[in-house]
Specification:
- It is a single chain.
- The chain has 232 residues and is of the alpha/beta class.
- Helices cover 37% and strands 27% of the residues.
- The protein has one domain: P-loop containing nucleotide triphosphate hydrolases (Rossmann fold, 3-Layer(aba) Sandwich), CATH 3.40.50.
- It has helices spanning 40-48, 67-70, 88-98, 104-113, 127-139, 157-170, 184-187, 208-214, 219-231, and strands at 2-11, 14-24, 29-33, 55-60, 63-64, 73-76, 145-149, 176-181, 193-198, 201-207.
- A hairpin with a 2-residue loop joins β1 (2-11) and β2 (14-24).
- The longest helix has 14 residues, at 157-170.
- The protein is globular and about 45 Å long.
- It starts with a strand and ends with a helix.
Amino acid sequence: MIQIEHLTKSFGSKVVLDDISATFETGKIIGLLGPNGAGKTTFLKILAGVSGDYKGVVRMGDSAVGPKTKAMTSYSPDCEYLPGWMNLHQITKVYSDYFSDFDSERAFVLAERFRLDPRQKIKNMSKGMQEKIQLALTLSRNAKIYLLDEPIGGVDPASRAAIMDLIIGEYRQDALMIIATHLVADIESIFDQVVFMDNGKISLFEDVESIRMNKKKSVDALFKEVFACSAN
């Protein structure tokens, strides 16, 4: 589904993504793991088509990143982007106008599962509630690719299990999902594969089962081991 060849991205003299090559296949939930500043957010922005001016090749199916790929990619950034004066009723109307694959009925069902009031204005919601709304909107598109940047970063531990259940329940086998996070222990159970990223490079890309069988440890344990070493 996604083919990346020698992807490099810089901001001024700082190299944020450094000669990355990888292939991501449909039917997988992939964890994009690394410490803050590893390049995860920039990587997802490029895949989502909202960041350009990079070197290398990024293709989705038979198309380079552009209007065609943006139409089949559902992206949830790690920031608050919804207008504060809107409520869910108003937001779903906007999404329906912009995205032909958006299912407004599903959005309301998911919001109800999160116990969110669709009449409440975004500005009156907590950060965790806003993240739940963003996730519900993202998963309510019938997209081919889902890109989630820190989807559980602002929610309390008690809500994380509910979010994981939601992601698993809404995920389709004909799609690809990439989730960037540094909260590995809370989310690793849903991953098929993981990518370790640090200093703009991919240091590991492996099946989760292979890690558990061959390395005899969890993804979280390996993550702590690898990045504890890189921090020293």
